[in-house]
Amino acid sequence: MAIVTLLTDSGESDHYVAAIKAKILGINPGIRVEDISHKIKPSDIAHAAFVLKAVFRDFPKGTVHLVGVDSTGNRGDSYIAIQLEDHFFVGCDNGLFGLISDKTHQQLAELNTINSIVTTFPERDIFAPAAVKLASGVSITSLGKPMPSFKKMTDRQVKATKKQITGTVIRVDGMGNLITNIPKAAFDTLSQGKVFTVQFGGEKFRKIHTTYHQAEQGECFIVFNSLALLEIGINRGNAAELLGLGYDSVVNIIFEE
Amino acid sequence: MAIVTLLTDSGESDHYVAAIKAKILGINPGIRVEDISHKIKPSDIAHAAFVLKAVFRDFPKGTVHLVGVDSTGNRGDSYIAIQLEDHFFVGCDNGLFGLISDKTHQQLAELNTINSIVTTFPERDIFAPAAVKLASGVSITSLGKPMPSFKKMTDRQVKATKKQITGTVIRVDGMGNLITNIPKAAFDTLSQGKVFTVQFGGEKFRKIHTTYHQAEQGECFIVFNSLALLEIGINRGNAAELLGLGYDSVVNIIFEE
Amino acid sequence: MAIVTLLTDSGESDHYVAAIKAKILGINPGIRVEDISHKIKPSDIAHAAFVLKAVFRDFPKGTVHLVGVDSTGNRGDSYIAIQLEDHFFVGCDNGLFGLISDKTHQQLAELNTINSIVTTFPERDIFAPAAVKLASGVSITSLGKPMPSFKKMTDRQVKATKKQITGTVIRVDGMGNLITNIPKAAFDTLSQGKVFTVQFGGEKFRKIHTTYHQAEQGECFIVFNSLALLEIGINRGNAAELLGLGYDSVVNIIFEE
Predict the structure, then answer these.
(1) pTM assigned to the model
(2) A176: which chain C residues are within 8 Å (Cβ-Cβ)?
(3) Which of A23, A198, B80, C194 is the right S-S partner for A128, CB 3.0 to 4.6 Å?
């Protein structure tokens, strides 16, 4: 049975999420609707992209991901359907989808071009019917006008040299842990057994742990997390608050010669 | 596979919602349980009715909607099952169901009359088993004693004349948008190309937009929304807070001769 | 179709819950994933155990319950799979599972012993694959090394004599109701029609209600709730705040001779 996931910034006290779900099931009650999250910070594309990137590949190939974050088309953005890494995505061409993968897309179409609909609720009126079609095996190209490319935003890039890796915090999670964009692969390539210092805020550490609980309660842990990204936290504490760091804060790893 | 939706004011940190779900699946694991919302303001019948009315028709016909909002039977209210517009509803006869449709009900029964149960948790002990039966094709009349009618509350009514439409805010959504009870149909009938003014708080506007993004960031938009109701918001702002309006605030549309 | 439930303290604004769900569906898209709650207070084993104990038996026998609360293995706790009362549980051996049942377990194994995995996210990397296997009918013993027993914590015990029952509040629910560990069965055995006083804080009551609405609005109700436990609340009020009581507060029932 085909799966459609939902990722929105709509919260859960309104009718919006249930309206999308109802629309999908009303068209095809055989589809399985699975929530990714509805607690994305309103219109926060970076937050939504982080969550989607972290999970989409683990769903079965062919899963359709309906994304309703910053979808009002404020900047005249198109509504699109994309096939990317054997997954389908339906949403607004606001730059979000450019942040979740470096791979070239397989198929791409601009929705709402065959039977144009004016709506204040594209998630229900445009994305849901398109998601059902994709989940039912309809090809992207029959959903709308082909497009050559979709919007890419420039993500914060990690700077890596033999002497230093400089990254930034890309997500503060609900427990206050600071997830950076520094990949384990870059560290592994450059460290090569060298002595190193991890610097952030006024703090300096000379060790990266393998699990959270290697730090004592109240102490800082630094790990490569389950996304293979450098993460800084405080065991049973809120690192963002206690260290005064947040989204976009700089984290350095400095290698000694 | 039959669908049972859940709409409660129980929140998500307690066992209540999972207990209802478990009860349903324990009786019939083949049923699909879909959440509408569990973040209804405690005992807020208007909030629950707004959300349910906004979404129920989009679910497949025959869907069973279990409603656990203000269900303790404070005023001696009965527990009921209703068939209405080809959907089934199970809940407390507290006036909520009278707010979701103007249509005449198809079937109606008072639950808890065949094998009476005393319980502090009717959602699990009375509504869930009844919902499973309805979802399995059992008729309403075999669930309890037939009733002639269920409770209707008087909803705020829109007043419409050739000169003016007067409505009220019936829902402030999670983003602070003000949704009124003024239907597009009434406006379309009365406006007929006339010059008009929309008034609320100290504000006056002479235009209704078709999409949110026709207003600049920080500016007011006025649209007929996806429920075909007049909605007032501020692009990327919280209209309720910034305009000082809320539930029950008056909104007028005045037509010039 | 097999059911896997999820109970975590991860909240809903991060990728964690969806990552567990995606992993399960990615391995076997036929499994039904049902949320119990993701709003457990971080690392609060008592909260998680209360919710799980309150609902697990109502799910169909054979359901797999994946529990991700305090799972980082802070104290060197093992990851385990248990069969208990014909249900399966996968999680961390942190004492939680000892709180949900007094029955002897049917099967028990230490996970992560066949192909050891170092991970900061055991819910996704260890629990999810194990849950899928259990849901697919794989025996617990083939998932890891058999263990003789799992960790039991001593729960607050009720003290009951002919003269008095002394219990404590074991959960303050989202509405502020105080749920105690005093079972209806103990009261029924000891009361035998005697006059009694229920004491908590500075309050004394001589009556136990059968439903919430037997108390007037703003008044205290005392009931044996749907878990057959003594519960104290205030009709349309927050008892915890208004009575100044909370988790672990003492409640006495004193019988007169």
Answers:
(1) 0.95
(2) none
(3) A23
